[in-house]
Amino acid sequence: MMWVALKMLVGDRLKYIALVAGVAFAALLITQQASIFTGYSMRTGSWVRDLQWADLWVMDPQVLFADDIKPLSDTALSRVRGIEGVEAAVPLYKGFIKCRLPDGTLIQSRVIGLDDATLAGGPPEVVGGSLEVLRQDRAVLVNNADLADKLKMTLLDKRAINVGERISLNDHEAIIAGTYRATPEFFWEPVIYTTYSRALAMAPPERKQTQFVLVKLKPGVDRATVAGLIRQKTGLDARTPADFQWDAATYIIDKTGILVNFGMTIGLGFVIGLLVAGQTFYTFVLDNIRHFGALKAMGASNAAVLRMLVIQVCVVGLVGYGIGLGFASLSGIAFAAGGLAFHMAWQIPVVGAVAVIACCMVAGLFGMLKVLRLEPAIVFKA
């Protein structure tokens, strides 16, 4: 019966291609849009994820995400260092500072100041060197990907900036001593690394200037216990990197409406797939109604005929889903080359497959009901 079902399915190639194309389009929309949404969500926490050194992030309890600047008092660092279980704690500055390029181009930048003694909290990879270049006079590090993009001069020279050139950060001269590579972020301002003391000198004067305290725990110490002690004894908030990333992602998704927009697109893909596959599959059943009637007249039971339909639905669903997933993966490669966010976690193909097969089953349900009500005598009518 399986071979009969397959021959019926591919017998009309035009309808078979239309069925597969409808399912493939739905699968493409579902998996591609879900992957883009995941990619953008992950970018909201890429800076925290890249910073491998810290076991805990200590911050003002009102901080909502990594670029929400709410400074701490000068005593925060010493109070955190006194908590049991803390092996090391270092300050971290992060702030928005105006950056003037050599030709006068003025841009907004995010400057990160690393602890002068340890340089803890730096980018994951320094191109052709190490973080030690920051110990040079007036040295800063810029993202290698920003040289010809976010740091491109646009007034006179109209060219990319180079290592060794001088820039001005809030009227303080700085020299680009090297570049680094990092995971792309959700926000667009270029990130510039320097030392903590240099960053404070460049930043506009404020009574409080430390944004975060990074904590390294002693081996074997429970992270949640120390975080609770920090909250209890300092009144500050202590979050794990995973919690901080999750807080940033949920806040930005909630405030930007990204979840609603992508959810609508994914839902639209599901509905389109359902309508296209359902209408085409129902037409397919009507066109082959006499064949099903003949099978029932020859003694085939309703269960056997339903199995044939289920086989046809599964074949169409799997072939269409495979094609749609393949196109989604290819589009992801193209998006990545263009710098767009795309991350296909393993859950997306799994959930997408379940959604598409469910979509096909619902679409095939109407055809199955038609076959169940079919009288075998129809085959003998003119």
Describe the structure.
By secondary structure, the protein is an alpha+beta fold. 49% of the residues lie in helices and 16% in strands. A 6-stranded mixed barrel has the order 2-3-8-5-7-6. β6 and β7 form a beta hairpin. It is elongated and about 95 Å long. The model has no long low-confidence stretch (mean pLDDT 83). One of its GO terms (cellular component) is plasma membrane. InterPro entries: ABC-4/HrtB_transporter, ABC3_permease_C, MacB_PCD. Pfam families: FtsX, MacB_PCD. Keywords: Cell membrane, Membrane, Transmembrane, Transmembrane helix, Transport. The chain crosses the membrane at residues 262-285, 305-338, 344-366.
Report the mean per-residue pLDDT as an integer: 83
Strand content bin: 15-25%
What's the alpha carbon Rg, rounded to whole Å? 30 Å
List the helices and strands in order.
HHHEHEEEEEEEHEHEHHHHH
Provide the spatial order of strands within the biggest beta sheet.
2-3-8-5-7-6
Helix fraction by DSSP (H/I, runs of at least 4): 40-55%
- Structural class given helices, strands, pairing? alpha+beta
How many distinct helices? Answer: 11
